[in-house]
Design a protein that fits this description.
The protein has 257 residues and is of the alpha/beta class. 53% of the residues lie in helices and 11% in strands. The chain is built from nine helices and six strands, in the order H-H-E-H-E-H-H-E-H-H-E-E-H-E-H. It has a six-stranded mixed β-sheet. A hairpin with a 2-residue loop joins strand 4 and strand 5. The chain is globular, with a radius of gyration of 38 Å.
Length: 257
């Protein structure tokens, strides 16, 4: 009887030890509140774990999707311009560039056939050393700032010339003289030689000597020696842009106020 009791006690101890071990493995040593995770609980942990593991993948992919969406919308809704005009010279005229745009709009053609005529007028302020000195009025800090901006704008203009994307220019003579070889003869575009008082050279026309330049008040804001120059055919030039620029030049030269 004693042996039987001892055997039962050992079995009980073994059973309790196994149960205790099982409880510990389940995470509850008391044996209370034991439950297996439901499907809902497992699902509830999926997204936090997924986000922790893949958040950068999601962020990067989402960024690319956003960029492509924005680019696509802009591409579909952006105004399509018929011709681009760039002014490079000593005057800051960004605040009235819409006036210049309106003037050129009235003489340009609808080359992209969207039913509307749209030109874009863009500017780069570039000054000769003498013009910088005059603008700074003896202020050394202003002169240093002008020189730095001048260098940056010169590089921007150089890049634009090399790209051949813009072919219609209004230029200070200093910039024209430096890049004279890239511009076309006016007589080749017009089919005749303009009056001598209009000409700075065979490749450049004084804007403010034309009836076009005199007719629109906005051109009073530009220096008297501002030149109209059309880039010659460039390896990267768009044929449509080139044709639009030449036709605009012809319309300007043939205008009589």
């Amino acid at each position: 009887r004693t042996m039987s009791n001892e055997f039962e006690n050992k079995n009980t101890d073994i059973g309790e030890s196994n149960n205790a071990k099982r409880l510990r493995m389940l995470g509850d040593s008391t044996g209370e509140n034991i439950h297996l995770k439901s499907d809902e609980a497992v699902k509830g942990e999926f997204w936090p774990n997924f986000w922790f593991k893949y958040k950068w993948h999601v962020i990067i992919i989402s960024a690319f999707v956003f960029i492509f969406l924005v680019f696509g919308i802009q591409l579909l809704t952006a105004t399509k311009y018929d011709v681009t005009i760039m002014y490079t010279g000593p005057k800051y005229v960004v605040n009235i560039q819409d006036k210049f745009q309106e003037a050129f709009d009235s003489f340009a053609k609808d080359y992209n056939e969207d039913g509307e005529v749209h030109t874009v007028f863009t500017t780069l302020v570039y000054m000769t050393p003498e013009q910088q000195e005059a603008a700074a009025k003896g202020n050394e800090n202003d002169l240093m700032a002008l020189k730095k901006a001048n260098q940056e704008n010169y590089q921007a203009f150089k890049s634009q010339i090399m790209s051949g994307k813009i072919v219609f220019y209004l230029l200070d003579p200093s910039m024209y003289n430096e890049y004279v070889e890239v511009f076309a003869n006016g007589s080749d575009i017009l089919g005749y030689t303009p009056d001598s008082e209009l000409l700075y050279s065979e490749k450049a026309v004084y804007l403010k000597q034309t009836d076009f330049g005199k007719y629109f008040d906005c051109f009073k804001n530009l220096p008297d020696d501002t030149l109209i120059c059309i880039m010659d055919k460039h390896v990267f030039s768009d044929e449509e842009e080139l044709s639009a620029a030449k036709d605009l030049f012809i319309n300007i030269m043939e205008f009589e106020a």
